[in-house]
Specification:
This protein folds into two domains: about 40-140, no CATH class; about 170-390, Orthogonal Bundle (MetI-like fold). It is built from 19 helices and two strands. The chain is about 70% helix and about 0% strand. The chain has helices at about 5-35, 40-45, 45-55, 65-80, 80-90, 95-105, 115-120, 130-135, 145-150, 170-200, 205-215, 220-230, 240-245, 260-280, 290-295, 300-330, 330-335, 345-355, 360-390, and strands at about 150-155, 160. The longest helix has about 35 residues, at about 5-35. A two-stranded antiparallel ribbon has the order 1-2.
């Protein structure tokens, strides 16, 4: 008798678990695998990769490795497979693409012994560091992308070190993304709490009408709302004209392409996301708590601090978490109204996917972005939980 309800419950939960696995767990697993997979060298240069794995790395590889490199590069060029491996090696060390293409084009003219003809073609083939790089890139797994996403790299001997200062961009990028997301989240919570409280204080049908007004922006796409801010913030746009008319500015200023534009437009787009959970919690609060506190002589500030705010913290937590998780991965709005120094991690992920076709770096940035969002959400949950536990 007990088995049947359990089976029924399992059957009802099965579609939800399948959806969770397919929509979240599987993509996360694929992203993590892409961030640590190194297959380009092995797929394009299989014999060379096998010979380099047996190489001791002390001096130059043996003649069969040189011969395999020359023959497989020529074949990869003829079969149009050389772009993938050259891009992979060039990402780790600039100049490798030119070296591989030059060697592949010269393949028919090269002759044995290849240990002499390859260095004669380019001195880089006489450098053990070049061969160590290719051996390290032969995979099947790599830490390159995860390290580079934190501005680290590996030396030819395999030691981890920081990249050159002019190439260190990603740690600053993650800090910028975190800071902008926290600012947007704070602004949305501070602006949304009074709106949610006002909606909760209304009686039907006015409360329903107010919720409808909050939901109305969701009927237009994020692209449309972001484009509207791009037009509003132009030098000759309505915002500049209003500031000049009010005497706050002597002349129009550049607003598009600034951090202020990113914060303003992103907060506007995400504000309903913060309002709805807070309003949902506040509308279920029992007004008799505040009435009892008032009858005991508590003033408005004391009622807010001791009654309304603690009881509304679950809604604040939900609204803040949802706003932050969306802000940390925002792409369209910063791309439209922000400048080069205001782009967030999502913009770089899109660049690696669409322009550079570097799936490994895009996946590594996505992994760290997911970890950062999860850590902040967990901290927010922890601190809010403690606040609820200590609230009188």
């Amino acid at each position: 008798m007990l088995a049947r309800p359990k089976l029924l419950a399992a059957a009802l939960l099965a579609p939800l678990m399948l959806l969770l696995a397919g929509a979240f767990l599987l993509p996360v697993a694929v992203t993590l695998a892409t961030a640590v997979t190194d297959r380009e060298v092995t797929s394009s240069l299989p014999r060379t990769a096998a010979l380099l794995r047996a190489w001791d790395g002390k001096e130059l590889p043996p003649e069969p490795a040189f011969a395999a490199m020359a023959e497989e590069l020529a074949a990869a060029l003829e079969e149009r497979r050389i772009g993938e491996v050259s891009q992979r090696l060039n990402f780790e060390r600039t100049g490798m693409r030119a070296l591989l293409l030059r060697t592949a084009r010269a393949g028919p003219r090269l002759s044995a012994p290849y240990a002499a003809s390859l260095p004669a073609l380019d001195p880089a083939w006489a450098d053990p560091a070049t061969w160590k790089l290719i051996r390290r890139a032969a995979g099947p797994v790599t830490s390159l992308y995860l390290l580079r996403a934190l501005d680290f790299t590996r030396t030819p001997d395999g030691e981890v070190q920081a990249v050159a200062p002019d190439q260190a961009v990603f740690r600053t990028l993650f800090l910028r993304t975190l800071w902008v997301s926290l600012q947007v989240t704070l602004a949305c919570v501070l602006l949304g709490w009074p709106v949610a409280a006002a909606i909760a204080a209304l009686r039907p049908p006015w409360s329903s009408a107010a919720l409808f007004m909050v939901l109305l922006p969701f009927w237009s796409s994020v692209l449309v709302r972001s484009t509207a801010w791009f037009a509003l913030l132009q030098r000759e746009g309505p915002v500049n004209q209003a500031l000049v008319f009010l005497g706050l500015l002597d002349a129009p200023i550049q607003l598009v392409g600034t951090r202020a534009a990113v914060l303003l437009a992103t907060a506007h787009v995400l504000l309903p996301v913060a309002i709805l959970p807070m309003a949902g919690v506040m509308m279920r609060l029992d007004p008799r708590h505040a009435q009892a506190a008032a009858s005991l002589g508590a003033g408005p500030w004391l009622r807010f601090r001791r009654i309304l705010l603690p009881l509304s913290l679950p809604g604040v937590l939900a609204g803040a978490a949802m706003t932050f998780l969306l802000a940390v991965g925002f792409y369209i709005t910063p791309a439209l109204v922000g400048g080069e120094r205001d782009q967030l991690v999502a913009w770089f992920i899109a660049q690696f996917l669409n322009r550079d076709v570097n799936w490994g770096m895009a996946a590594a940035l996505s992994v760290y972005l997911l970890l950062m969002a999860g850590a902040v959400a967990a901290l927010l949950r922890l601190f809010t939980g403690r606040g609820l536990a200590s609230a009188p």
